[in-house]
Amino acid sequence: MAQARLSGPSGEAIEIIFDTDTIHRRIGALASEIAASKPKDLLVVSILKGSFIFAADLIRALHGADLGPEVDFMFLASYGAGTRSSGKVKVLRDIESEVRGRSVLLIDDILESGRTLAFAKRRLQSRGAERVATCVLLDKPGRRAADIEADFVGFACPDRFVIGYGMDLGHRYRELPFVGRIVETGPA
Ligand code: IMP
Ligand code: MG
Questions:
Q1: Burial of 131 (0-12, 13-18, 19+ CB in 10 A)
Q2: Nearest alpha carbon, ligand 1 atom 17
Q3: Per-residue pLDDT tens digits for 90-144
Q4: pTM score, two decimals?
């Protein structure tokens, strides 16, 4: 199993679960699948913070698939600083775009309990979106609490807490260009 050792004072060892090339190839395929669904007047909504890197790469891949979406952000929080969802979703910032009559693509990093995505999807449907499709980089199907599946999934994810490629643990590790898990903490 490939590992990365972070430089700097913390020096953690990270097991790489999905490397950069694998992620980028999969994103290219996702963009083609999304284009094939023939969205109408597409609005992409990236759920912050976790999906910002995935969304940035996916949006550029959508351009490669001949789509020119409007892009907006919904800032939702359910986790706080820990590794377990609190179960309650809070809106820290809402989108500004009009959704009525449009195809909306909701993007998140991970689908776990499904509460976050179900909450955001309901919110956009209630405002009159014609179609709300969902796209997640990772799916942890064993953890579902809400009745929702994503329309587009990058990878099935082992039931482990993962970091990197936008995903954090206690506000750290979002900058890693791969998805991994911490296997050894560095010297204190
Ligand atoms: P859900 O509402 O339980 O589906 O939780 C989804 C949110 O929890 C995602 O948007 C992530 O931000 C966060 N999350 C779930 N699992 C992980 C993980 O393994 N690493 C980092 N964040 C996670
Ligand atoms: Mg998140």
A1: middle
A2: 161
A3: 999 999 999 999 999 999 999 999 999 999 999 999 999 999 999 999 999 998 9
A4: 0.94
The answer to whether the CB of 162 is under 6 A from ligand 1 is yes
The pair of three-digit structure tokens given for residue 32, joined into one six-digit string? 């083609």
Question: Which two tokens mark 84?
Answer: 């377990």
Query: What does R_g of the chain's alpha carbons equal in angstroms?
Result: 17
Give the angle 123-49-170 at the CA atoms, nearest 5°.
125
Our answer on whether the CB atom of 139 is closer than 6 Å to any ligand 1 atom is no
Cβ 85 under 6 angstroms from ligand 1: yes
176 lines ligand 1 (CB under 6 A): no
Closest-lying ligand to the alpha carbon of 115?
1
Q: If you take atom 5 of ligand 1, which residue's CA is the nearest one?
A: 112
Distance between CA atoms of residues 94 and 162, nearest Å: 26
Ligand 1, atom 11, lies closest to the CA of 110
CA angle 62, 95, 64 (to 5 degrees): 5
Q: Give per-residue pLDDT as tens, 20-58.
A: 999 999 999 999 999 999 999 999 999 999 999 999 999
